[in-house]
Amino acid sequence: MKHFTQFENISLAEQLIEQALQYKIDSRKHISKGLGKRVGCIFLNPSLRTRASTQIAALNLGMEPIIINMDKEGWALEMQEGAVMNKTTVEHIKDAAAVLGTYFDVLAIRAFPTLTNKDEDIEDFVLNQFKKYANVPIISLESAIRHPLQSLADMITIQENSKAIKKPKVVLTWAPHIKAIPHAVANSFAEWAVGCGHDLTITHPEGYDLDPQFTQGAVIELDQKKALKNADFVYVKNWSAFNDYGKIHSTDSSWMLTESHFENAPEAKVMHCLPVRRNVELSDEILDGPRSLVQKQAENRIFAAQAVLSKIII
Ligand SMILES: NCCC[C@H](NC(=O)CCC(=O)O)C(=O)O
Ligand SMILES: NC(=O)OP(=O)(O)O
After folding, report:
1. Which residues bind N(2)-succinyl-L-ornithine (predicted)?
2. N or C end of the chain: which has fewer CB within 10 A?
3. How many angstroms separate the CA atoms of 185 and 314, rounded?
């Protein structure tokens, strides 16, 4: 594995899950593995979990993490090839990426979508510019279209909480939000859940179809009540429209899960990547109740990142 930017195959996913679970038992077992290696964590957008968990993961392997909050501390980046840079942008991404590639053994990048330029977002333009010009392994810390470290942590959390269930029914449900939100978490979750062999149903209001490249192998059921029936895990996420790109078509609060939504799924556990808008996306009742796995998912972000870094620096 050179880069970690998406789901590759089930055998690699299983290896990473297994390694992460071993690190969860003994996080320092490979404390010397990364000695002398540096990972640069480049944030073009805000973060709490990804920033802290990636640093901790690197330190657990003896690596040195360096955080650069490019959006606040770096020069304004120009993304367009051939641009005449006589306005606000100061440094071209290809120069910045090449420089960072000489400073670090691994580069980890967070680059959200524009939600206005669909073509650029779909081709994961910013992440791929780093891949093209940095010439070192690249880890996605959430790109325009995927959030694979989150999904790996989610798969670990599902495995840990599946007990005797062989093929859990997993439901990805759209939830309301006040803002236009990226598709990355939902796309990646679908890609990994199907890739790992789970029985995935996706439910959302009309007009919220995700990019079909990520939903192959999933059942789409627009009736949330039907979708939730017999669910073992319910993953809650808002996303903006994909076809009518970046637009908000619904804020229907009946899509926000409360205890009454679980009439036909009494054992279901509820997941969310966080940060969550309480009582907009998900009720206090669920988040603070026994169904919630959100803190476990966040904790598993450390071991997911550690397994990935470990595999990349071998
Ligand atoms: N990294 C985890 C999620 C990041 C992003 N959330 C947000 O932008 C929340 C913004 C807000 O609630 O104002 C998303 O859902 O894709
Ligand atoms: N879930 C997640 O990626 O959280 P942050 O955006 O805080 O890193």
Report:
1. 142, 177, 237, 277
2. C
3. 28
Question: What's the pLDDT score for residue 164?
Answer: 84
One domain, residues 23 and 139? yes
List, edge to edge, every strand of the sheet that includes 233-237.
219-220, 199-203, 169-174, 233-237, 269-271
Q: What is the pLDDT of residue 220?
A: 98
pLDDT at site 3: 98
Residue 277 annotated in ligand binding: yes
Pair 172, 187 in one domain:
yes
To the question of whether residue 174 is assigned a binding role by annotation, the answer is no
Protein residue whose Cα sits closest to atom 4 of ligand 2 = 49
For residue 56, the SS3 value is: helix
Tell me: do 181 and 70 sit in the same domain: no
pLDDT at 257: 98
Ranges of the chain with pLDDT below 50:
none
Q: Is residue 2 part of a domain?
A: no
Is 297:153 a contact under the CB 8 Å cutoff? yes
State whether 118 and 172 are in the same domain: no
What the block records as the tokens of 149 is 């470290």
Residue whose Cα lies nearest atom 7 of ligand 1: it is 181
Ligand 1 atom closest to the CA of 142, numbered from 1: 1
52 with 115, same domain: the answer is yes
Q: What is the count of structural domains for the chain?
A: 2
- Shortest-distance ligand to the CA of residue 281: 1
Bond preceding residue 275 cis, omega within 30 of 0: yes
Q: ipTM of the predicted structure?
A: 0.99
Residues 194 and 99 reside in one and the same domain: no
Ligand nearest the Cα of residue 188 is 1
Write down the pLDDT at residue 300: 99
Domain coverage including residue 288: 150-298
Q: What residues pair up with 269 in beta bridges, in sequence order?
A: 233
Question: Tokens representing 121?
Answer: 């977002």
All residues at 6 or more sequence positions from 255 whose CB lies less than 8 Å from its CB, including other chains: 173, 174, 175, 176, 205, 224
